[in-house]
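Thread amino acids onto this structure.
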């Protein structure tokens, strides 16, 4: 019998000062600062259901990330798998939702299925960086 690896999940929320449609469109735009796509040195991305992405970030050494879009429901939800060296071969899942709150959007990102190890916990700082930058850039008129 193979024992399953223990996994963890992170949940992040940000209020984005634009309607859900604009936040959704910005999140899948590889030119938008604050998205993981924009940070890459190289990117192949096909944002459609079953479309794949490959993101290469070079910081000291190459950090490839890859996955598959599993749900795209504009303007409410984006879901994709996420694999990298820091997932230890596990296929984790990133779910981003956009809910209208007055003139703003409550953006929630849940990253589940990460290994319960330092490399998995490193995603907390990374997602906080991206979401803070994303919210800040969309606040600029």
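Threaded sequence (141 positions):
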């Amino acid at each position: 019998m193979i024992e399953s690896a223990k996994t963890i999940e992170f949940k992040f929320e940000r209020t984005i000062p634009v309607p859900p449609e604009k936040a959704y469109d910005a999140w899948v735009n590889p030119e938008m600062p604050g998205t993981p796509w924009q940070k890459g040195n190289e990117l192949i991305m096909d944002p459609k259901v079953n479309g794949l992405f490959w993101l290469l970030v070079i910081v000291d050494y190459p950090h490839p990330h890859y996955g598959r879009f599993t749900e795209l429901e504009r303007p409410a939800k984006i879901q994709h798998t996420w694999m990298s060296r820091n997932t230890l071969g596990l296929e984790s899942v990133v779910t981003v939702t956009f809910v209208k709150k007055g003139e703003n959007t409550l953006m929630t990102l849940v990253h589940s299925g990460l290994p319960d190890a330092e490399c998995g916990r490193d995603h907390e700082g990374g997602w906080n960086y991206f979401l803070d930058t994303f919210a800040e850039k969309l606040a600029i008129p």
